[in-house]
Amino acid sequence: MESPLKLDPHGESLMQQFREMLPTLKLLEQEAYEQLHRVLDEQDIYVTAFEHRIKSEHSLAGKLELKGAKYKSIHDITDLVGLRVITFYTDEVDKVAAIAKRIFDIDWKESVDKRKLHQLNSFGYNSLHYICRLKTGGPRFELQMRTALQHVWSTIEHDIGYKNDVKIPNEFIRQFNRLAGMLELIDDEFSRLRLVLTDYRRQVQSLVKNGHLNEVPLSADTFRSYLELHPFDRLNRRIAAVNQAEIYTVSLVPFLSLLESFGLKTLGDVQDFIDNNSDDAYQLALSHLAITDIDILSSSAALQYLCMVYVLKHGDGRDGLKSIFDKINGESDANGMLADLMLEQAGTQPFIQKKL
Any idea which fold 9-164 has? Predict the structure, then answer.
């Protein structure tokens, strides 16, 4: 197959060398991809895209037509095989780079960190470029690492022809540079915010672990941390002992919206909710389970009885019970019948209040 562009004899020689190398390049492409992909998975590093390719003859011919004379042999061209890893955050680019340094041999003279060039109009090209070789040897290949925003900007620039040979008026160049600067700031701020939130979660976990619950707002993240303390286990064991039942584990996160609807604002409020209602929740469970032969209970049993006690104490009666079942089971007419049954079995429990 002839190249689409006219090459001089040296360029044609390089192109022929490329064609003869194709089987080796295909093996290299697959091996390099698999090695890096495997370690990224092992390290739980999420990437938004992982691209790999062998340079096309058309692309190579364009390169050789422009600057083929600088290459003595096809082995001097370092991007015949290319890998590109796209991450969400700038710090993840550095993590991918650290892995690449460990599993590949890096040609540092040919590699470049374009992020350090600080060119005002280069945001989309601020990739980290490593020229690599497999530890077992063979041709070199290029590994590009960039963030998703850098990649999107680079694609947009290419699509609208910003980098072509047409002279761009200064007013448009200025607009491009302003947008590039804004995106670079956004890229950095996303990474900074991620670090801040990670630090906040660590602080919350420390507060929870040390029992400073009143200082921790109730949220999905903090509730999960609180559940690691197993705050409902004691009541679950008391309830299970009624029928010597086994307990199987389920998620308690669906109850969060229910607790919030009760007006609980902090984990301290949740702990008070447990402390103030546990004995009554046990009595309610006893009145319900003592007349059954149920021998398997979910780990949500304690929290469910606590919620039922709470609404009965506040005089919400059948409607309150049905609201509980609707939120944890999904809305259904059957929840009304279940509410009637629980209200009947609650009987004359002293904590039950009736609305005037």
Answer: Beta Polymerase; domain 2 (3.30.460)
